[in-house]
Backbone:
């Protein structure tokens, strides 16, 4: 074998390789990090729209399930407090009760605060008149919800405490109930309004008017309560919204 002739040729080949491919290129690494995508990613899908509560159809009568609208209803305790002030009165026009402030006090559920329907008296509620007013507040406090059914000569209203009111419209003699869960009340129709004739604590004259709103989506329960002060009357109005029968 001719080794002396092969050795110079191997050296020349090695030197050529070093010149063409420097050591830095031979051992260099790719830049760190992932390669950018050739096309942008699509945007995330939009969130599904919130489900709307089904609208309740307008009513043509008082029959149906109704929920109290506390924001649009009167505060009965404040109404009685205003009536006891000098020059105080009902603050409302005929069939109204619109003059006084309306506040959402969380009635009639328990725990509405120290001056709520289940709490103690507010400012100016002391004394004999205050005691009567406290009793009246308990009598006229609104229901959280009620279901109304129309019969031939009566209107039945069942409330959130499972108490039932039966408004008789045929002039029959009313029997005094022995059970607080059932009460009979004398009433009559004045056009589309149901009007009652009642007596409160110490024989105070009271009446309430139940009337459907013009759009059929609410009904108004308006109390007229005699205070015994020169025939003055306290007017309290509660507003109920037509609702589906969800008692929560």
Residues:
């Amino acid at each position: 074998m001719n080794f002396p002739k092969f050795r110079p040729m191997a050296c020349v080949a090695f030197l050529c390789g070093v010149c063409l491919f420097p050591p830095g290129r031979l051992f260099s690494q790719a830049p760190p990090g992932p390669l950018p995508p050739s096309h942008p990613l699509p945007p995330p899908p939009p969130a599904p729209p919130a489900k709307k509560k089904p609208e309740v159809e307008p009513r043509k009568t008082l029959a149906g399930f109704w929920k109290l609208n506390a924001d649009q209803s009167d505060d009965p305790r404040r109404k009685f407090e205003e009536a006891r002030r000098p020059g105080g009165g009902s603050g409302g026009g005929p069939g109204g009760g619109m003059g006084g402030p309306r506040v959402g006090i969380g009635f009639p559920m328990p725990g509405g605060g120290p001056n709520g329907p289940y709490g103690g008296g507010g400012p100016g509620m002391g004394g004999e008149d205050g005691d009567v007013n406290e009793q009246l507040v308990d009598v006229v406090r609104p229901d959280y919800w009620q279901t109304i059914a129309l019969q031939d000569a009566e209107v039945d209203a069942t409330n959130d405490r499972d108490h039932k009111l039966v408004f008789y419209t045929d002039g029959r003699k009313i029997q005094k109930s022995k059970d607080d869960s059932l009460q009979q009340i004398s009433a009559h129709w004045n056009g589309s309004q149901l009007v009652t004739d009642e007596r409160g604590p110490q024989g105070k004259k009271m009446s309430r008017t139940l009337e459907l709103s013009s759009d059929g989506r609410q009904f108004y329960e308006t109390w007229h309560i005699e205070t015994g002060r020169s025939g003055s009357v306290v007017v309290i109005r509660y507003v109920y919204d037509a609702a589906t029968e969800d008692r929560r």
